[in-house]
Design goal:
- The complex is a heterodimer of chains A (323) and B (294).
- Chain A is mainly alpha-helical and 323 residues long.
- Chain A has a domain at 89-286: MetI-like (MetI-like fold, Orthogonal Bundle), CATH 1.10.3720.10.
- Chain A has helices spanning 2-13, 15-31, 37-40, 47-57, 63-76, 89-124, 129-143, 146-158, 182-216, 219-226, 231-240, 244-270, 275-285, 288-316.
- With 294 residues, chain B is mainly α.
- Chain B is built from 12 helices and no strands.
- The chains are: A mainly alpha (323), B mainly alpha (294).
- The A-B interface holds A 16-17, 20-21, 24-25, 27-29, 32-34, 127, 139-140, 142-148, 151, 155, 159, 161, 210, 213-214, 217, 256-257, 260-261, 264-265, 268, 279-280, 283-284, 286, 291, 294-295, 298-299, 302 and B 1, 130-131, 133-135, 137-143, 145-147, 149-150, 226, 229-230, 233-236, 245, 248, 252, 255, 258, 263, 267, 270-271, 274-275, 278-279, 282, 292-294.
């Protein structure tokens, strides 16, 4: 019951954030954004036709009314029709969201789990050659642009110049009923996942190592060592569990941005029809209805993530109170 | 590591943060190597700026998609432009983006971070924290696109978008530092002799965070260069002229035709600068950030 109360209060507390995000997005993208009147009209429009289109787009209404309409759309999840495809925005998102999730989840999990493992190894062997090797690798990983990693990995694994093991681009992984064909899925998801993991490892390993090293230098770890506790117990109980709060924070807060920003480049490069690709197409075409929906929903996702993060803190550290 | 810290603590002279930092930096081989490489790039950028090299980046010739030769060191692209000249000219573009974004977002971050830290717990702090939360919650590419829409093809739209989002990281760090500093005696002393608040904040407190600002600026510099490449590739960054991102973008067509010169030249040039800057930035953090555990 307390958790429920806490959740409701936290969600209400997220309203200023959602208002801020939607306001800035609306101001920049729609109010000061491109005038779509003439893109929607045929040749030689009459003044009545122009007025009609401007009314449809809401250009004749005052700022606050138009912003209010956007908020209403966000609450009802009905963003009207998209320009780039003759479908409702909500239907497009329903169709593309699973694609993006299928694409991102393996890389996201591997990128964090492997990074924590590498960070544990590096932190445990702090200042030795193992640590230096891992940290050098991580700096190199951080320094190669995501774009270059994608292009090189596609060349190595998918093109005829390299191994040619995987399809170059596309996403033919669903059967006629919309079910997933696992073998095809593996073929299409491997190269993007490798690229994501490669880039994520650079940043994540470094961050997690710093967190773990800080924890290792604390007194309780030294005491545990002095009492002769084994390496495994020390690492997992004494260090990792205590370091979970910053780790959770990083993992959770990257979720909302990974969903859109992280997949935008990879989806548009590999031609995968997910949310990122739709966002990119909408940016190029100036499709305001889609962009409004994506920005608004990302903000909502952020608020939900904030809530879940607080609850997770409580799971790993019982001293944290849900206030 | 241990011997070094003992040496530092027993040093006779040089007790300021900067003296200690210089001492540490002098003994950091990787950091010095990084700084040297960055310096070389900076000289190249200056040489382009003053028109000594790279001015012929847009000239076309009959030599289409050629390999490296004495005349064209890195070969030519599909329309016969000299890749070496383009890569060199792009160095200037990268430095422009990096410096402009690093300087302005550090300024913005230090001012707003100091204000929010000094007035922590008041409405000023809440408003700034809210603004930072809002800016951090908008997907980056969408924000860049939105700024580009609003500024109607302004060539600095990308810079402005990066500045408006990258300052939040700096501001958060500075806020924490200022909260710690404002309780110290020198602030109390300044207050007791009646120094006005704005002077206390910006003359007494903010300068004490300058070592952190420097580190943050190097981090933002790298982030700006890396973002420029991806944004230009997506067609949302540099519009006129040439940059590493635009070169990589055009090279994806070359790659399909089996020519790799363009791609290798632009990505290697970028990689070396970024890794050198990361090495430099790391050694600055080791030298200047007392909290960092290595």
């Amino acid at each position: 019951m307390d958790v429920l109360k806490f959740a409701i209060r936290k969600l209400l507390g997220g309203i200023p954030l959602i208002l801020g995000v939607t306001f800035i997005a609306f101001l920049l993208m729609v109010y000061f954004g491109p005038d779509l009147t003439y893109e929607k009209l045929g040749k030689n429009p009459t003044p009545e036709e122009i007025a009609e289109i401007r009314h449809q787009l809401g250009y004749d209404q005052p700022f606050l009314t138009r912003y209010g309409t956007y908020l209403k759309q966000l609450v009802t999840l009905d963003f009207g029709y998209a320009d780039i495809r003759d479908l409702k925005v909500s239907d497009i998102l329903k169709e593309t969201m699973p694609v993006s999730l299928h694409l991102i989840i393996p890389g996201f999990i591997l990128g964090n789990v492997i990074a924590v493992i590498l960070a544990l190894i590096a932190a445990y062997h702090r200042s030795s050659w193992v640590d230096k090797l891992i940290m050098t690798g991580s700096v190199i990983g951080m320094s190669i642009s995501f774009l270059i990693v994608i292009i090189v990995f596609q060349l190595i694994f998918s093109s005829s110049y390299g191994l040619g093991w995987f399809p170059v681009r596309g996403w033919e992984v669903y059967d006629a009923d919309g079910g997933i064909i696992w073998l095809e899925y593996l073929k299409y998801v491997t190269v993007p996942t490798l690229a994501t993991v490669f880039v994520a490892l650079g940043y994540n390993t470094r961050f997690y190592r710093a967190v773990l090293v800080e924890e290792m230098t604390k007194d309780h770890v030294r005491t545990a060592k002095a009492f002769g506790h084994g390496t495994k117990a020390l690492l997992f109980k004494g260090v990792l569990k205590n370091a979970m709060v910053p780790i959770i924070t990083r993992v959770m807060f990257s979720i909302p941005l990974v969903v859109v920003s992280g997949s935008l480049l990879i989806e548009s490069y590999f031609g995968i029809p997910g949310v990122g690709k739709v966002t990119y197409d909408a940016i190029l075409a100036g499709d305001q209805n889609i962009l409004k929906a994506i920005v608004g929903l990302t903000a909502v996702l952020f608020v939900i993530v904030l809530l879940l993060t607080d609850i997770l803190y409580r799971v790993f550290d019982p001293r944290v109170e849900l206030k | 590591m241990n011997t070094k810290s003992i040496e530092i603590s027993t040093m006779e002279k040089g007790h300021s943060v900067w003296d200690k930092a210089w001492y540490k930096f002098k003994n950091d081989g990787m950091g010095k190597l990084g700084a040297l490489i960055v310096l070389v790039y900076f000289i190249i950028a200056l040489a382009v700026w003053f028109g000594f090299v790279g001015g012929n980046w847009s000239d076309t010739s009959d030599a289409l998609s050629e390999g490296p030769s004495m005349k064209h060191w890195f070969g030519t692209n599909q329309i016969g432009q000299d890749i070496f000249a383009r890569v060199i000219f792009s160095t200037k573009v990268a430095f422009e983006v990096g410096l402009v974004v690093a300087i302005f977002s550090t300024l913005l971050g230090s001012v707003l971070g100091s204000l929010s830290g000094y007035y922590s717990g008041t409405w000023v702090d809440s408003v700034i924290l809210w603004l930072m939360g809002v800016l951090d919650s908008i997907p980056f590419y969408l924000f860049v696109a939105a700024v580009a829409y609003a500024l109607k093809e302004n060539p600095f739209a990308m810079h402005i978008a990066m500045i408006s989002t990258f300052w939040t990281g700096t501001a958060r760090v500075i806020r924490g530092e200022v909260i710690k500093l404002k309780g110290q005696e020198f602030v109390e002393a300044a207050r007791s002799i009646g120094v006005v608040e704005s002077r206390i904040i910006f003359k007494h407190i903010t300068p004490n965070t300058s070592h952190i600002l420097l580190v943050q600026a190097t981090i933002v510099f790298v982030a700006a260069i890396k973002s420029e490449v991806i944004l230009s590739f997506l067609g949302m960054g540099v519009k006129d002229g040439v940059s590493w991102g635009l070169m990589i973008s055009e090279s994806t067509l070359d790659i399909q035709a089996g020519y790799f010169n363009n791609f290798i030249a632009s990505s290697m040039f970028m990689f070396v600068l970024v890794i050198a800057f990361n090495m430099f930035s790391d050694s600055m953090q080791d030298a200047l950030d007392p909290k960092k555990v290595s």
